[in-house]
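lol ok so funny story. i was supposed to be doing the assay writeup but got distracted and ended up predicting the structure for this chain instead. priorities right. anyway since i did it might as well share w the group, maybe its usefull for someone
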Amino acid sequence: MRANTGEQWLEGRIRKYGPISKLSLFGTPTIFLTGPAANKFVFMNEALVPQQPSSITRILGKRTIIELAGEDHKRVRAAIMQFLKPDVLKNYVGKIDWEVGHHLKMNWIDRQTVMVMPLMKGLTFDIICSLGKFFAYRRQ
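and the output, tada:
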């Protein structure tokens, strides 16, 4: 995939195969779901236990919400769902958009190589700080 073409690739895939399809991700058969209804189905369905390919688990870690089960999953999902309600998200979109744009300008644009994991951790931290929910500290 060429640089900065991921969105076009996803849109083309959805046009060709629809919002639900099967693909091979890092050599592992994977179900590809898109849209708000699919997200709600995955995150709200207690009977569904999604499993990530081992390569994704190595990248994201073992304690992501998708890897959690039982009471741990319910507790984390409940906390996340409070933050992801549409009326709540409307209040945060502008702040998040500004943080992502600023982060890209400062850390990604005009660079040949970037260290993605530390930059994404920093971006996540900056977004949380800018939303003012958890920290009063602002990274420089």
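The radius of gyration is 17 Å. The chain has six helices and two strands.
back to the writeup now i swear
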